[in-house]
Amino acid sequence: MTYTGDYGWREGDRVVPAYAFTQGRTRTAGPELPLEALVTATKLAVEQLPTLQVERRAIVRMSMRPISVVEIGAALHLPAGVARVLVSELAEASLLTVHLPPSTDAIGGPGPEILERLLDGLRTR
Amino acid sequence: MDYAPVRDDQRFASVTDRPLIPLKILVAGGFGVGKTTFVGSLSEISPLSTEQEMTSLSAGVDDTTAVPDKTTTTVAMDFGRITIDDQLVLYLFGTPGQNRFWFMWDELAHGAVGAVVLIDVRRLDESFAAIDYFEDRQIPFAVALNQFPGGPAYPDDTVRDALGLPRDCPLVRMDAREARSSLDTLVALVVHALACSTP
Questions:
Q1: What are the backbone angles phi and psi of residue A45, rounded to the nearest 5°?
Q2: What is the Cβ-side half-sphere exposure of residue B195, based on CA atoms within 13 angstroms?
Q3: CA-to-CA distance for B68 and A1, rounded, in angstroms?
Q4: Cα dist. B73→A7, B28, B49, B82, B93 in Å?
């Protein structure tokens, strides 16, 4: 299967549009996953790996190490929104654990404790 | 919102047992100012580009109503990753420069640590819109003058006046090709964000 840019994936002579992977949905039911949300594969996912559809299997494989929604989209050459739907489905099936960004302060960014840690980390690089 | 609820059953335990914390910083600025270079100088991963589809908010720009199932227009967006420690992972998002992609900024900006506004001093006017955007939304930002060889060397005060920068906004002179220089810019931003978060 090869990626064909705007038209999705080519499988044999059939072009499979990206939305076909998500049963036509390009939006999740609940609040949307941020692009930077990290996911990790669950043990259940590892057990079920051989039974998963090819692109879902690819996502679980990638998630053996923490990886974000935006990275998954880039790796699979899928628009970020499509990657988001696939990740949401896998999370709902308990195959992925989602790590969401920290709750935000009044201004909207992370609180001082997290920012201190970020600063320390950047300064010691 | 419950994603993969935590259960006692070992079978459901994640391959990593510790919670991870994703963070993000936006990298804004006009076309060709060095956003891709900046993100690339810091990122530990490649590829560095993803596609983001047009949403209904972009109606009137590209009419997608004729093919409602298809997101017809995508825009490439640079991103990079810096692992900070065993829990924190920082993502850098290069925001698409053209005004018609601004609908994407609101989602990107939500929950961000802050933004770096990259500036080419020869084309200051291209950065006004980004500065206004972050100022209006009280998102901490730092202005980074990407020094191009042979560019004019205006004093800081002149640049601050020309851009109408708030007094507390960091102004950094840097070279986006140098990882150290880009890293120092991030540090200046986070110091500022920290000051904003602790009144």
A1: -65, -40
A2: 12
A3: 25
A4: 11, 21, 16, 29, 19
Q: Would you say residue B125 has pLDDT above 50?
A: yes
Q: Over the stretch A36-87, which tens digit does the pLDDT of each residue have?
A: 999 999 999 999 999 999 999 999 999 999 999 999 999 999 988 899 999 9
Q: What is the pTM of this model?
A: 0.82
Give B61 to chain A, closest Cα distance, Å.
Answer: 18
CB contact under 8 A, A94 and B197: no
Please list the residues that pair with B83 across neighbouring strands.
Answer: B89
Alpha helix (H) residue ranges in A63-107 = 69-75, 80-92
State the best of B2, B10, B16 to mutate against chain A, taking most chain A CBs within 10 Å.
B16
Phi first, then psi: give them for residue B151, nearest 5 degrees: -75, 155
Residue B114: count other Cβ atoms within 10 Å of its Cβ. Answer: 27
pLDDT of residue B99: 63
Residue whose token pair is 């109408």: B164
Q: Which of B183, B185, B121, B128 minimizes the C-alpha distance to B155?
A: B121
The residues in A 75-114 lying below 8 A from B, measured between CB atoms, are 75, 77-82, 88, 91-92, 94-102, 104-105, 107-112, 114
Give me the percent of chain A exceeding a pLDDT of 90: 63
Q: Is the ipTM of this complex over 0.95?
A: no
